[in-house]
Amino acid sequence: MTLPVSAFIVCQNEERVIENCIRSVAFCAEIVVVDSGSTDGTLAILQKLRDEGLPLNILHEPWRGFGAQKQFALDQCSQDWCLSIDSDERVSPKLAKIFPGLLAQEGVNGWRLTRYDYLPGYGFVPPAAHERYHNRLFRRGRGRFDPTDLVHEGIAIDGPVRKAQPGGLLHFSPLSLHEQMEKKNKYSSLKAEMKARRGQPPRPWKMLASPFLFFLKWYFGHGMWRCGWLGFTHSMQGAIYSFLTEAKRYENAAISRVPPVEPTDVGRY
């Protein structure tokens, strides 16, 4: 059954994961993919899938930042409903099964979906260890991104929004701990920059409180304790990311006050 949904994806060099993402939304009448300059096999995979008959609209656009890039992709959608999905995500079988019912609900403009992370060495977390719910599925014209979001872009939806249950998005990101920390280092820099652009002052106490609270939320609140030590390391990664964001924000502000020029008054040393 084809549904009046435009799934939209932004990508760059995602040959490891994008095919299964596309196949998981094959029930959509349109799949918009905006590539920002892939140099691996991503484009060849997309062309193969389009040749198979999947309703792919492949576009090319230089990277604008997460919020602006996803808004560009959203602007290309033509169906009644729009689904934001990342290339390392898949619509789970249970979620796909309830999609027709979600679209048929009167008086609902959007649906929040949860995600189930993949932990290398463990697999997908159990259903009880899911993330919070995110705005992802909405009527066209009722959702929008903030183009100033450099990272962790969210969707603002006008009107009633509900949780979609059961099922969710399977987040298949099989990155090693080394790769995960490289990604979190990059994203924390973007988030620190975004906060600075928005005039949010650094708050040193957050370097102490935020990592602790983040760990508690993920390990206990999101049920990562169910995944043993790999759930512990997954939660700690988030705590480290939280610390890096606040530490970089504070450091950047300090450097703006005291530029890194070698002091000349060093007689006391």
From TrEMBL:
CDD domains: Beta4Glucosyltransferase
SUPFAM superfamilies in alphabetical order: Nucleotide-diphospho-sugar transferases
Stretches assigned to the Glycosyltransferase 2-like domain: 6-127
Classification via Pfam families: Glycos_transf_2
InterPro entries, sorted: Glyco_trans_2-like (IPR001173), Nucleotide-diphossugar_trans (IPR029044)
Record-stated family: Belongs to the glycosyltransferase 2 family. WaaE/KdtX subfamily.
Cross-referenced PANTHER family: GLYCOSYLTRANSFERASE, POLY-BETA-1,6-N-ACETYL-D-GLUCOSAMINE SYNTHASE
UniProt-recorded name of the protein: Lipopolysaccharide biosynthesis protein
Source organism of the structure: Paracoccus thiocyanatus
